[in-house]
Amino acid sequence: MKIPYGGDYNPEQWPAEVWDEDYRLFDAAHVDTLTVGVFTWGLTQPSHDEYDFSVLDRIIAKAEHGGRRICLATGTGAHPAWLAAEHPEVTRVDFEGRRHRFGQRHNSCPSSPVYRRLSTEVARRIAQRYAGNPAIIAWHVGNEYGGACYCPLCADGFRDWLRERYSSLERLNEAWYTRFWSHTFTDWAQVEPPSALTEHWRGPDHTAFQSITLDYLRFMSDAMLANFRDEKAAIRSADPSTPVTTNFMGLYRPIDYHRWAEHLDFASWDNYPPDDQSPARMALAHDLMRGLKDGAPFWLMEQTPSVTACRDVNPLKRPGVMRLWSWQAVAHGADAVLFFQMRAGRGASEKYHGAVIGHSGRSDTRVFREVAALGAELEALGPVTLGARTPAKVALLFDWDSWWALEISDGPSRLVRYLDVVTTYHKALWTLGVDLDVAPVTAPLTDYDVVVAPALHMIKGDLADRLSAVAARGGSVVTTFLSGRVDENDNAFLTDVPGPLAPLMGVRVDEWDARDNLYVNPVSINSSTYPAQLVFELVIPQGAEVIGTYTGDFYAGTAAITRNTYGKGHAWYVGTALDQAGVTSVIRSVLAPHDLLGSFAALPDVETATRVAPDGSRFLFLLNHGPSTVDLPAINGVNVLTRAAPATALDPNDVLIVELS
């Protein structure tokens, strides 16, 4: 056993005589795992009453005979043309109310009975045909679920979802605050999906009734989850044990992955960062994916070996970066390293997307040589990190409901973006070398010494009590501006801001000032000053100690950052959007009393992460994301890849993996 290595392979797109050459190159690159059949619905079901598995049979047989492990997809990532022609209702209606015709992908209405029945049936037939094949190590349902539909079928589905959630119109009207603007509903049929034709103005984030839009976001995520569960159940009817997954997209707003997590046997995701300068952002996404299954390892299902092809500009991964980012995934919990794509397609929108094997089929390209070298390293690593977990004493809370509610709110500021706030706090922890979990707000918090909850806009259930318990037993809790504002229905608490968090934080906020992104009001912390922007809450201590103050405007000298003693611990409140250096300074002060600052935090651009294997072996990963060689202190252990003593310096884009003594 070893970390699966390979990726998406689509041999149905080129002549069969090319396949032998592919496998020769797979051998050279140490590729042992292939994801096949992701977009084969049109091949396996060419018409309503006809199934043809001949091509998929040959693909699977070739992989099996070639000694490859297989991640077999159900092929339902895009529906076939005949389905849309025979049943136009399977295509989506968009936010502006336009019925789409056949084309693209992600164009299937999740509420369509015909779509659900036929997608489930093709998954069932594939599972019945190939279940029991020892080469199949995982099932892959759909592909990158996302988007939304506003058709009449979804309107009916939404009403059913609301009946189950609220039971009565009285409860729905109360939750949605419908006495505002004469919106009281007296019949379920009066409820419409919130769209450009109903509640919205100026786009999807501008809505007259945030509660309605919030519930529709929840419903649409659940509707697509129902599609996944349909297909998984069909697979389980033939194969009761092989794990089933689907590929998530990391920091993706439309789907609440926490609501999906329990239904996946393992999490997997596709890493396509927005640029090539964001290692901390990728670390956040990896940590989020690991946190979906309570810290269990995930699969890196897709990444490009070189370039993407879906953006206006597509930077090439510099020499060594593919290796660096692949090991970063492993450092944060990946138990598989896979690519899209194994061979470049000849046509359509992804023909210029990076591939292990280019159109010419050469093995002497830089990209292929780097892929082969990484494959050799993964073979040298062997099974030692499989199943390893991260020993975290710090949790960063991540909440899709807060994300949605904050960004559809009419105030205080539409310039505040949830991910910007979260990534700033995660990057501070990442920079300081902290091993951390990115956890849902429902996660148990008893094992953490520090809990960081940036932009915790919505407070649900007993969350405030559980955060208070962290501080009461001696831990530290950090939250920020725009936290504790609304309940699960997006209605404001009839109490001082920050709502249920106020007793823990020891503050109240009566006023807040929102400005454009050119306005700066610096915050003074001890002898240093840090820029702050966007939102400035006028924090009034109610027992909390003032740690930082505003330096400008009429509220100069008033509290911006506070620390409240609560039980044996502390609660920190940051009332404004500090810059990265400011946030890092605050987080450093939070971590220091708990002795949680990383041992290598002083090294510029060096990322560290620890994994602990099931047998107790500890592995330290060091990754140099910077432009210069970095000198390392002595590390007691063995370089896992060379079995020699650890190096004393780390070159740019280089990686060191040490089994600690």
TrEMBL record:
<feature type="binding site">
    <location>
        <position position="154"/>
    </location>
    <ligand>
        <name>Zn(2+)</name>
    </ligand>
</feature>
<feature type="active site" description="Nucleophile">
    <location>
        <position position="302"/>
    </location>
</feature>
<keyword id="KW-0326">Glycosidase</keyword>
<dbReference type="Pfam" id="PF02449">
    <property type="entry name" value="Glyco_hydro_42"/>
</dbReference>
<dbReference type="InterPro" id="IPR003476">
    <property type="entry name" value="Glyco_hydro_42"/>
</dbReference>
<feature type="active site" description="Proton donor">
    <location>
        <position position="144"/>
    </location>
</feature>
<keyword id="KW-0862">Zinc</keyword>
<dbReference type="InterPro" id="IPR013738">
    <property type="entry name" value="Beta_galactosidase_Trimer"/>
</dbReference>
<comment type="similarity">
    <text>Belongs to the glycosyl hydrolase 42 family.</text>
</comment>
<keyword id="KW-0479">Metal-binding</keyword>
<feature type="binding site">
    <location>
        <position position="105"/>
    </location>
    <ligand>
        <name>substrate</name>
    </ligand>
</feature>
<feature type="domain" description="Glycoside hydrolase family 42 N-terminal">
    <location>
        <begin position="8"/>
        <end position="380"/>
    </location>
</feature>
<dbReference type="InterPro" id="IPR029062">
    <property type="entry name" value="Class_I_gatase-like"/>
</dbReference>
<dbReference type="InterPro" id="IPR013529">
    <property type="entry name" value="Glyco_hydro_42_N"/>
</dbReference>
<keyword id="KW-0378">Hydrolase</keyword>
<dbReference type="GO" id="GO:0009341">
    <property type="term" value="C:beta-galactosidase complex"/>
</dbReference>
<feature type="binding site">
    <location>
        <position position="151"/>
    </location>
    <ligand>
        <name>Zn(2+)</name>
    </ligand>
</feature>
<dbReference type="Pfam" id="PF08532">
    <property type="entry name" value="Glyco_hydro_42M"/>
</dbReference>
<feature type="domain" description="Beta-galactosidase trimerisation">
    <location>
        <begin position="392"/>
        <end position="596"/>
    </location>
</feature>
<dbReference type="InterPro" id="IPR013780">
    <property type="entry name" value="Glyco_hydro_b"/>
</dbReference>
<feature type="binding site">
    <location>
        <position position="149"/>
    </location>
    <ligand>
        <name>Zn(2+)</name>
    </ligand>
</feature>
<feature type="binding site">
    <location>
        <position position="109"/>
    </location>
    <ligand>
        <name>Zn(2+)</name>
    </ligand>
</feature>
<dbReference type="InterPro" id="IPR013739">
    <property type="entry name" value="Beta_galactosidase_C"/>
</dbReference>
<dbReference type="Pfam" id="PF08533">
    <property type="entry name" value="Glyco_hydro_42C"/>
</dbReference>
<protein>
    <recommendedName>
        <fullName>Beta-galactosidase</fullName>
        <ecNumber>3.2.1.23</ecNumber>
    </recommendedName>
</protein>
<dbReference type="InterPro" id="IPR017853">
    <property type="entry name" value="GH"/>
</dbReference>
<feature type="binding site">
    <location>
        <position position="143"/>
    </location>
    <ligand>
        <name>substrate</name>
    </ligand>
</feature>
<dbReference type="GO" id="GO:0046872">
    <property type="term" value="F:metal ion binding"/>
</dbReference>
<dbReference type="GO" id="GO:0004565">
    <property type="term" value="F:beta-galactosidase activity"/>
</dbReference>
<feature type="domain" description="Beta-galactosidase C-terminal">
    <location>
        <begin position="605"/>
        <end position="659"/>
    </location>
</feature>
<dbReference type="GO" id="GO:0006012">
    <property type="term" value="P:galactose metabolic process"/>
</dbReference>
